[in-house]
Amino acid sequence: MSDRAYYVTTPIxxxxxxxxIGHAYTSIAADVLARYARxxxxxxxxxxxxEHGQKVANAAAEAGVSPQAWTDRMAATWQSLCRRYEISxxxxxxxxxxxxxxxxxxxxxxxxVSGDIYVGKYEGWYCTYDETFWLxxxxxxxxxxxxxxxxxxxxxxxxxxxxxxxRDRLLEHYRTHPxxxxxxxxxxxMLATLEGGLDDLCISRTNLDWGVPLPGxxxxxxxxxALLNYITAIGWSRDEERFRRYWPADVHLIGKEIARFxxxxxxxxxxxxxxxEPKSIFAHGWLTIEGEKISKSRGNVFDPFATxxxxxxxxxxxxxxxxxxxxxxxxxxxxxVRQRRNSDLGNDLGNLLRxxxxxxxxxxxxxVPPVAGASFGERFGDLGERTAGRIxxxxxxxxLAEIWELVSALNRAIDEQKPWRLYEQGAQHxxxxxxxxxxxxxxxxxxxxxxxxxxxxxxIHQQLGVGDELGRNWNEALRWGDLTAGxxxxxxxxxxxxxxx
Length: 501
Ligand code: ME8
Hints:
Blueprint: E1 5-14, H1 21-38, E2 42-50, H2 54-63, H3 67-84, E3 91-94, H4 98-114, E4 117-127, E5 132-134, E6 152-161, H5 167-176, E7 181-182, H6 184-195, E8 201-202, E9 204-205, E10 219-220, H7 222-227, H8 229-232, H9 240-246, E11 251-255, H10 259-272, E12 281-284, E13 287-289, E14 292-293, H11 304-311, H12 313-322, E15 330-331, H13 334-364, H14 375-379, H15 383-392, H16 396-417, H17 419-425, H18 428-449, H19 454-464, H20 474-477
Helix pairs in contact: 2-3, 5-6, 6-10, 11-12, 12-13, 13-16, 13-18, 15-16, 16-18, 17-18, 18-19
The chain binds ligand ME8.
């Protein structure tokens, strides 16, 4: 068996403020991939916080504390968001950590040696909020094209990364790797950007202290510092064996507004270091409210902790992944979350579990009968593979739709075969076959749903009395008929109690 691991990352989030649901969204999607991948072998999920830059320094100053005290406090909040939404990260990197800062300095030194960076004069427009330099031609009414804030004129001697040198190689890579950037829209946009030409990138700042100090003065541009997190955490230049197990990353998950950094600048930096590019980058869409991106700067954020308390983390996870194709924008509304909760999760899934176990209790003392009905095994035999295929394609909505076919088919089997009638008629064999099918179907659902709604998936297995099953190899677990006859089920509380208006 190969010791290669599936490596998936989230962006590292700015901690100038508290997190909102948009941040949770990316991390939840990454978590689904990692949880699934762990059932097939090794996986590594990296998330963390981007702690340098003017925005963070300003936030600390406003709060009247040192940047380090501020970041310590905020990083703890971001970690608890991960716990609240069951993000099973393997490492949480903070860019103020020594392990990261030393990598930044080493990268800088190596790029100096390779001749990929040089000193030049930087004069141009800078948006502090987005930590981005803009060409005059890109400004909109003299303001930042991204956030529409005022930009500042900067004139400094700075270090530049010779990005323009990599344009042809990038174009070639895009041409030969049509899946390098997904979805297609992001690929097309980035290709058009490349075709439009590339400027070299200013990678140092002299008018700011809160960053990674560079030998000779100044600090590293926060975006280069941030991107390097993806190689710091897996041991680049410190532990080559470990690094080779994870790199290149299988997928960087990001929001579409930071695609240029990840799909153009990042591969070029890696090439300059003699490293391969990531296998793919997926730039997903935005969560909106009334058509506006949810963001602190637009003032339409709400507390994701309170949301998890109210709906339950699993309900929110399910909603976010089921509501829209990954890649598209979609809108948040409490009402839509409530509907998904009450219909898909409560009526379809929760009631299926409750009805099945209640009937098993009534007719068979809660014990799984010895007759394995085969028809579902034939019909859904490849469901595990199909669901897995959708997950690795990042089609989470499609994966859940596949899984819900099984949920619906099991509910239909109850409605059509009417176990209470089979019982009255003394049709013992048919009743056994149906009850077995329901239990085995639910055992499958526990496995299939574990990446998406981990706590509730575990609860399904607990109620079935197979609480030690989760974490089994995906293919082995999803063999129809694996549930042992004679298994004592337990039952329990409703999985998704109805939420009232
Ligand atoms: O950009 N809908 O950090 P950031 C969906 N530090 N996703 C959203 C979202 C929304 N409304 N709002 C935020 C940064 N996100 C840099 C990244 S990586 C080397 C450095 C998610 O705190 C989405 O993933 O602004 C987006 O890319 C990320 O949060 C931006 O987080």
